[in-house]
Amino acid sequence: MLDVLQSIIPIALFYSAPLIFTALGGVFSERSGVVNIGLEGLMVMGAFVGIVFNLAFADVFGTATPWVSILVAMVVSAIFSVIHAVASVTFRADQVVSGVAINFLALGLGVFLTKQWYGKGQTDMVSQPFYSKNIPLLSDIPIIGPIFFQKVYVTSYIAILAAIVVWFVLYKTSFGLRLRSVGEHPMAADTNGINVYSMRYVAVILSGALGGLGGSVFALTIALNFSQSTIVGQGFMSLAAVIFGKWHPLGAMGAALFFGFAQSLSVIGAGVPFLADVPKIYLTIAPYVLTIFALAGFIGRAEAPKANGQPYIKGSR
């Protein structure tokens, strides 16, 4: 049993990290009242920038390259998300349509530039990805150490820490109170001197940064290169995690861990006794089926922030 857990948990955490980061971005955006269907596109942009930067600067930054790559991906994706913010907040466009446009634009731009720069449909494999490692001291703890702290990716634990930080920001700071207020009752927030438009811009840009972080972490731990099939549904899984987690950072993290585990089934299935005889195709499609169930409200109906998806017009009722 210990061996089974040791094979399952690190891989599940490994697949969960990108989903956690991106889902946290979705929580920021939707808590402010802006629906962000574009999480998939933000992940694509993050994956593209992370890989291209890594390939270009591996000789310059050495072993620090993946860390610098994810920071650059965060910045570029944050800037890219301004398109969604301008369309949704300033021009009051349909937020779902704007998010879908972000998805198409990111993928199209990424694939086009990849073909232009590398002369083929995918980039080369990176030479400086993230590597799994044993966490000092913690990996020596009996029973718990081998399961949770041996051959793990540091990014997995950074993602969990990030969820706790986002929870603190949203529920224990004045910034979080203002952000949640513009997502629940923007007119009341405006009356109290809160700039609804600014808060929503900040929330969407934060979702862009976290979505880019999720995409770049996925690319630099799992895919190791970029192509049109690098990010295939992970952004939508993250969106499902936001809904499944009831728009709460810790709930979204829990849902992302669940979806990450579902994604890992196709990798670990052969080594798990009760999954060994299940055809691999079923394990491969499992995360997508579970995502559909979550989005359809299979687990229980969740109520979104009251003003989610509603453009705000100053002075209107």
From TrEMBL:
It comes from the Bacteria. It is found in: Cell membrane. It is a multi-pass membrane protein. InterPro entries: ABC_transp_permease (IPR001851). Its main location: membrane. CDD domains: TM_PBP1_transp_TpRbsC_like (cd06580). Coiled coil: none annotated. The chain crosses the membrane at residues 6-29, 41-61, 67-89, 96-118, 152-171, 201-224, 230-247, 254-275, 281-300. Keywords: Cell membrane, Membrane, Transmembrane, Transmembrane helix. PANTHER family: GUANOSINE ABC TRANSPORTER PERMEASE PROTEIN NUPQ (PTHR43370:SF1), SUGAR ABC TRANSPORTER INTEGRAL MEMBRANE PROTEIN-RELATED (PTHR43370). This is ABC transporter permease. It comes from Aquibacillus rhizosphaerae.
